[in-house]
Amino acid sequence: MSFLSLERVEKRYPDGTHAVRGIDLSIERGEFVVLLGPSGCGKTTTLRMIAGLERHSAGTIHIDGRDVSGLAPSQRDIGFVFQFYALYPHLSVRENVAFPLMCAAVAKADRERRVREVAASVGIEALLERKPRELSGGDQQRVSLARAMVREPAAWLMDEPLGTLDAGQRAGMVEFLRARQREAGVTTVYVTHDQEEALRLADRVVVMDQGRIEQCGPPARVYAEPATLFVARFVGSPGMNLVAGDCAGGRFMVAGARIADDVRAPDGPLVLGLRPEHVRVDPRGVLRGRCRLDAFHGACRYAWVDTPGTRIALRVSAAAPALAAAEVALGFDAAHACWFDPASGRRVA
Amino acid sequence: MRLVRWLVLVAGLSFAALPLLWMGLSSLKSREDAIRPHLNFVPALGAPADPHSFEFEATGTAYAHLSEVHAGAQASFWSHLWSSVVIGVLSTLASVALGTACALGFSRLEIRAAKDWLFFVLSTRFMPPLAVVVPVLLMYRTLDLQGTHLGLALLYTVFNLSLATWLMKGFLDEIPRAYEEAALVDGYTRAQALWRVVLPEARTGIAVTAVFCLISAWNEYGFAMTLNSSGAVTVPAYFAGLQGNIEGMPWPQIAAGALLFVAPIVVFTWLARAHLLRGITFGTVKQ
Ligand SMILES: Nc1ncnc2c1ncn2[C@@H]1O[C@H](COP(=O)(O)OP(=O)(O)O)[C@@H](O)[C@H]1O
Ligand SMILES: [Mg+2]
Prior knowledge:
- The complex is a heterodimer of chains A (349) and B (287).
- By secondary structure, chain A is an alpha+beta fold.
- Chain A has eight helices and 20 strands.
- A six-stranded mixed sheet of chain A has the order 6-7-8-3-9-10, with helices on both faces. Chain A has a five-stranded antiparallel sheet with strand order 13-12-11-14-20. A five-stranded antiparallel sheet of chain A has the order 15-19-16-17-18, with no helix packed on it.
- In chain A, strand 7, helix 5 (167-184) and strand 8 form a beta-alpha-beta unit.
- The longest helix of chain A is centred in the middle third of the chain and has 18 residues, at 167-184.
- Chain A is globular.
- Chain A starts with a strand and ends in a 9-residue tail after the last strand.
- In chain B, strands 1-2 form a two-stranded parallel sheet.
- In chain B, helix 4 runs parallel beside helix 7 (149-173) and helix 7 (149-173) runs antiparallel to helix 10 (203-219).
- At the A-B interface, strand 6 of A face helix 8 and helix 9 of B.
């Protein structure tokens, strides 16, 4: 059995909100799993059920082979980083960080050494004597992380810990978190709505929507082979281009034009999914339209082209000629195309 | 603008402080000076040359006489002050402790019909307390609580409990649950989390509630007068009891006693001022 497993876990709040609608998830020891999904999809609820802060309405949760259903949070041996930094205002930063050690009967000298170490690793040594209210949002979040990391529990659960940091700080913290987790080997479940962050951190990404798991897999696979239309749209920035059409005898037709041959999908309505980097300007291309916007993105540019029915984003090299307002024809890599059944939303090929 | 502000402040302050000042002056007078029909408010060290001047001879005898048992009373001012302290402190401790416990329940647990219960708690204040003075008197007579410290302390606790519960609920609701939850996952039990996280966070609320409870118990007059007319008589009832005795009112002693009676509340409020300032604007406790 895996280290942390959820089986058919559901959560219905007293007010009737069905926040989590049956989740199956197995997490291996030392794995870094990221729950990714839009706000309100049940990520926090799932994390809180693992922590024991919320009782699950159905299903079972096992940590390290133990059914934890009846265990209080304090008996589950976890560290939790809250979305909105829950530092104790009446304690100094040092006392906040040491707090989890105070009840674990750790000797004073040992405690101080560990507080110093973890403070150094998240870069808050200079702030130890301050009160939380004197810190910036970013620093408070660092202290929260330090508090969770001062112990090495069975699992770290983190709820959007970088939510309040600005982009620059965030990049640094992502690197730090990844390295620190590798080094400590503590099983980690991390919640975010930021797909970029998820892809950079995770061993495995769990994409959620409306209380259900849409897809679960390594970042590269979730990105390249989204299991559903939802994942295709949600992961990637910009998300996957989706072109609706019909399939008849292996031919994919959009508004009477033949777009692709040899499609291995059943006849009927079909959706073609294409990552922007797999679309290119091609004079012989079958998708035609006027370019609406050509935006600079540093190493590359993204252009948006209005084709009949959909607007398609494509990546062009920074040095390529400007496309804005031009009529262009687009081609694509059939090898990277994903095919979805619009009725079920699932990928069929 | 500044000038206007100062004028308003000074006017307000004199309005509030003048009675206290007058009391202070009266406490320095002899009884004759205190009841003299002409105005005298300038303390002087010796007897004034002109008996019709504004001056009077300042003396500390009123304070010295506080330890005397006056006609119409059974004990000295000091022993009544002690009764007030015992009753005030006991009932404040009890109201705050019970009110906090009650509010914790309403704030943190899922209680069926919590709103109705809270309304019920509040409704205990709808009736003027003195309306029940006779039944309480009979009850206390049966239970032998008349004239005891415990009796009044119990009564004041009951009166203040609803206020304490509602105040504390407001304050506790402002403390994010994430604080307790963080402590819970860090390995603390629910009780430890309450004790080490929630209560320290609620210090402001506790101080504010305590000030309100203490003031109301300290100054209560109606029940003190009826239930404890003998035995553990509190200061307000003691002063009232001096009225109409054969020797006449010992005004300087009353002024001196009233000043000393106000002092503890002022000191207590002063000590809690930082909390009060934050607490009076409910909802700003959050960071
Ligand atoms: N304590 C609660 N009571 C009732 N509904 C809740 C509660 N907490 C969250 N919800 C609802 O459950 C759903 C999932 O919430 P949440 O797990 O916080 O989502 P996420 O973290 O993915 O944004 C939302 O619709 C939210 O409004
Ligand atoms: Mg959330």
